[in-house]
């Protein structure tokens, strides 16, 4: 059976919807904060959903040829290694898969197995696991804490609305009473105190959510650092593979040189733009040597005359 307080709140709510009962309103600043909280909550939910999907996609394990579950990139690496072992030891393609290098004496041996493309992908799989752990502990868990904080705010906001209805219901009773009633007035004072308490609590929670931006930014920085470290490590592993790539005519080229060459000929580089010539244009990221300077056309001074001899037409 519904108690009287709930019934009073229900009557007050229905009266407000019908336009017959007055409603206690909050300040404009309070309302603006509530709008901001709604925006933050919707954004946090979207971020959490997309981040969870991202982490699941990176940490999803699949069954490989050996029936063991591993990350997709790890399965790819294992498959490369297994297939590379199917070839003869002098197979260039097989060597690329598992990096079997032939030394200068012609003896076949396995060197730098950790830098083979297959092995490299297995290493990348382990680095990916570390990245997932770091990104989860930094950013995903931060989003979960923010959502938990937002959930507590929403519970407090719901409680405030219930107390607001109870307060307005008591206020309506006092206004409609034909004579003074001590019990009704005491109930009004009690409901008003509860409403103000809840209002202060909700305001405090909204301000705490705003202040938590500093911590959220720090956690997002942790996510960025983890992402940078992951991609830098993967890049270094693949560059090491390229340095030892066992194909004929392989010449390792550091991509960093490309960037340096690009910078030297960038339009923003004033010195390069004013001194470079057509012969200095990069072709295939290999800079051509500048042409030799043209022969000097400066007129040479005549040699000093030798004593006792006369020179004609010089000078």
From TrEMBL:
Residues 143-212 form a coiled coil. Residues 15-254 form the BAR domain. InterPro entries: AH/BAR_dom_sf, BAR_dom. Keywords: Coiled coil. It comes from the Eukaryota. GO terms for cellular component: cytoplasm. PROSITE patterns: BAR (PS51021). SUPFAM superfamilies: BAR/IMD domain-like. Pfam families: BAR. Residues 264-279 have a biased composition (Low complexity). Residues 262-315 are annotated as: Disordered. Residues 289-307 have a biased composition (Pro residues). This is BAR-domain-containing protein. It comes from Eremomyces bilateralis CBS 781.70.
């Amino acid at each position: 059976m519904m108690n009287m307080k709930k019934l009073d709140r229900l009557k007050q709510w229905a009266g407000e919807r019908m336009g017959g009962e007055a409603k206690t309103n909050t300040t404009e600043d309070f309302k603006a904060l509530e709008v901001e909280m709604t925006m933050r909550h919707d954004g946090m939910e979207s971020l959490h959903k997309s981040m969870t999907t991202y982490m699941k996609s990176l940490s999803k394990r699949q069954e490989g040829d050996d029936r063991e579950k591993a990350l997709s990139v790890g399965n790819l690496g294992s498959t490369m290694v297994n297939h590379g072992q199917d070839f003869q030891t002098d197979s260039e393609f097989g060597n690329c898969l598992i990096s079997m290098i032939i030394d200068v004496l012609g003896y076949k041996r396995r060197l730098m197995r950790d830098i083979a493309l297959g092995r490299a992908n297995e290493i990348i799989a382990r680095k990916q696991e570390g990245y997932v752990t770091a990104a989860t502990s930094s950013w995903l868990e931060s989003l979960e804490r923010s959502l938990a904080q937002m959930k507590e705010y929403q519970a407090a906001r719901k409680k405030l609305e219930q107390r607001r209805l109870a307060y307005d219901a008591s206020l309506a009773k006092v206004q409609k009473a034909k004579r003074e009633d001590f019990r009704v007035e005491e109930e009004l004072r009690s409901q008003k105190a509860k409403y103000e308490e809840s209002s202060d609590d909700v305001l405090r929670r909204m301000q705490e959510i705003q202040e938590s931006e500093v911590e959220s930014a720090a956690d997002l920085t942790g996510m960025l650092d983890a992402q940078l470290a992951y991609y830098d490590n993967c890049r270094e592993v693949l560059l090491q593979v390229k340095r030892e790539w066992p194909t004929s005519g392989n010449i390792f080229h550091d991509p960093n040189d490309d960037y340096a060459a690009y910078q030297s000929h960038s339009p923003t580089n004033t010195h390069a733009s004013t001194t470079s010539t057509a012969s200095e244009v990069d072709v295939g990221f290999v800079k051509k040597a500048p042409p030799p300077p043209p022969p000097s056309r400066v007129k040479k001074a005549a040699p000093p005359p030798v004593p006792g001899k006369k020179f004609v037409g010089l000078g």
